[in-house]
Amino acid sequence: MRNDIHTNGAPVLCISCEARDRGVCGALETSQLVELSKSSSRHRLAQGSEVVGECETIEGYSNVLSGVVKLTKTLPDGRQQIVGLQFAPDFLGRPFGKESDLGIEAATEVLLCSFPRSTMERLLEQCPALEKRIFLQTLRELDEARQWMLTLGRKSASEKIATFLLLIARNADPTAAYQHPICFDLPLSRSDIADYLGLTIETVSRQLTKLHADGVIDVHNRRVVISSLERLLSVAGN
Amino acid sequence: MRNDIHTNGAPVLCISCEARDRGVCGALETSQLVELSKSSSRHRLAQGSEVVGECETIEGYSNVLSGVVKLTKTLPDGRQQIVGLQFAPDFLGRPFGKESDLGIEAATEVLLCSFPRSTMERLLEQCPALEKRIFLQTLRELDEARQWMLTLGRKSASEKIATFLLLIARNADPTAAYQHPICFDLPLSRSDIADYLGLTIETVSRQLTKLHADGVIDVHNRRVVISSLERLLSVAGN
DNA sequence: CGCGGCATTGAGATGCGTCAAATGCGGTGG
DNA sequence: CCACCGCATTTGACGCATCTCAATGCCGCG
């Protein structure tokens, strides 16, 4: 492992890694980072591939380096709901064992940095700051889940779509947030969007064309251009 | 503060407190429990009273000793969604500052055991086991939120009602779970139930009478008797 | 060129919301 | 004790948003 004076000896792969400052790895000392990186490995997942099946024990922990991961719940008859989206540099994997009944799947092509369970757990014991980082992410996920419950339970289809577009716009490229008009690619298929919003694909499609007809957005396949952010905000209803 | 040899010197008020073994106080040493109890105070809240307004900084932390607390989200136009229910001995209050945009309200009469923010934060630093307890509760709340997202997004009105009744039945009196027929009082008004399920009060009422007509439950005001647990489970759809 | 997957569009059905009225129940005061 | 009131709940009639089912369009790939 190369030790570069300018990066305080951080592993090369970690030097430019987003997870190192904004993600959980930011909580680690350089020496701990070196240790973790020794047993970490990068994986590229194809769109649609399953990270871990429902109810299975997760084989390890990961950072999302790029792409979007969806967390799903499914009823016995097949109806599905996406209960969370993870973007880079989110942390994936549940501490203290006992994975909940979740499907974890790549919504786009995804790049992961994974660690074995044992290494992570050893570090967790050594390093309270790491546990706190993960705790903070969990609190954020709880906030997001509850915010989405409001959307699922109380918003109309058009409000849901607008809310979703704004969510993606914010995550797609925060630096581009002040470009006008804002444009980005949807990381989800119509079917995934429907599963996220508790709608059908037909309703999703119709609402998108309606927003287009009203001059609020442009849509072509997955490409979205927000023509009027102001009006999109007002449709979203908050 | 009385020190009783049979309880290892735990404060009298804590001796029979549910939060001491099942709640977060279970993580504390006796000496810490004594310290915490010195600055703790019990409050009785009337039904409908607000614990802390949306966006306000919570003035402290609490354990729910009895009753049900609802966590709510509200849209600018007044539409409301209940995003969580807290039963005894759940912990109330968000560590690490920055309360999320939540309304916290007593759904029934509620008994709280509250601590000032400063005491709690000092203990949190001293006692990693306490932080871990709260972390574990947060993980549980996240699971519950996501489970409820599936209910909100993908279940029909009758499935929602059945799911809700089973949820309350499990929380009302776990020891009574094997009595047949199971009976309990709903801790929520029709309006609260509607806000929890993302429905209107009329739909809630109609679905309850339909379940009654189908011989699955008996309802009179808030009293519920589950005549056929098996059928209720099958209506809930999971 | 033709096939398969994804998305759009249309027509019809329906579950749930809306609005309005009736019912029941507890509390208060005469 | 009873009459009255206010509030929560139930019930009914109707409309509409969304779902369902089906057809069509679009595009990449063999």
Concise synopsis of the structure shown:
The structure is a homodimer of 238-residue chains. Chain A has 238 residues and is an alpha+beta fold.
Which SSEs are present, and which pair or pack?
Two copies of one chain form a homodimer.
Chain A: H1 12-15, H2 18-21, H3 30-38, E1 41-45, E2 50-52, E3 60-66, E4 68-74, E5 80-87, E6 91-92, E7 103-106, E8 110-116, H4 117-126, H5 128-154, H6 157-172, E9 182-185, H7 190-197, H8 201-213, E10 217-220, E11 223-226, H9 229-236
Antiparallel strand pairs in A: 1-8, 2-7, 3-6, 3-8, 4-5, 4-7, 9-11, 10-11
Helix pairs in contact in A: 4-5, 6-9, 7-8
Chain A binds a DNA duplex (30 and 30 nucleotides) through α8.
Structural summary, described in words:
- 2 copies of one chain form a homodimer.
- Chain A is an alpha+beta fold and 238 residues long.
- Chain A folds into 2 domains: 5-152, Jelly Rolls, CATH 2.60.120; 155-236, Orthogonal Bundle (Arc Repressor Mutant, subunit A).
- Chain A is 42% helix and 23% strand.
- Chain A contains 9 helices and 11 strands.
- A 4-stranded antiparallel beta sheet of chain A has the order 1-8-3-6. The first copy, chain A, has a 4-stranded antiparallel beta sheet with strand order 2-7-4-5.
- In chain A, helix 4 packs across helix 5, helix 6 packs across helix 9 and helix 7 (190-197) packs across helix 8 (201-213).
- In chain A, 38% of the residues are buried.
- Chains A and B meet through strand 5 and helix 5 of A and strand 5 and helix 5 of B.
- The structure holds a DNA duplex (30 and 30 nucleotides).
